[in-house]
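Researcher: Sequence recovery benchmark, item below. Answer with residues only.
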């Protein structure tokens, strides 16, 4: 589903870039720059989607640190220096190329980490192993959980 949405959005953004940008401005120069941006970045929404899926799965499993570091790495260590370097070589388009390059590298690192399976060993809260609970404490915990469920139901 995500692949279909990503490819559809890429197609729409690339093919209809001029009318889409025309919704925001009528300045021909701004539209030309925006079209270059959308042509470069729009083709890489698939990589962005993959990175988001991997990071969402990892965060949902309770592994939040690694996706954070991958995001910081792809933004600060990859995107900004690459954009700065390429802008000196090819102008404004170099800034735009830094974005998908960082997305691809972030998606690759996220995919590699996801495939290792180390995230499966993460535990957010494991109260049962950190301390011994008596019968009364276990009953209190069950009652509290049941109360939470009742309060959350519509």
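Model:
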């Amino acid at each position: 589903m995500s692949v279909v949405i990503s490819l559809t959005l890429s197609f729409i953004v690339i093919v209809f870039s001029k009318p889409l940008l025309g919704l925001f401005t009528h300045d021909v120069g701004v539209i030309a720059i925006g079209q270059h941006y959308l042509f470069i970045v729009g083709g890489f929404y698939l990589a962005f989607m993959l990175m988001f899926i991997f990071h969402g799965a990892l965060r949902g499993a309770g592994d939040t640190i690694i996706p954070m570091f991958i995001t910081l790495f792809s933004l600060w260590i990859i995107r900004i220096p690459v954009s700065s370097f390429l802008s000196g070589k090819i102008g404004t388009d170099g800034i735009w190329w830094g974005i998908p390059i960082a997305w691809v590298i972030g998606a690759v690192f996220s995919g590699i980490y996801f495939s290792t399976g180390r995230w499966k060993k993460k535990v957010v809260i494991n109260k049962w192993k950190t301390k011994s609970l008596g019968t009364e404490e276990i009953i209190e915990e069950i009652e509290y959980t049941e109360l939470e469920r009742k309060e959350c139901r519509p």
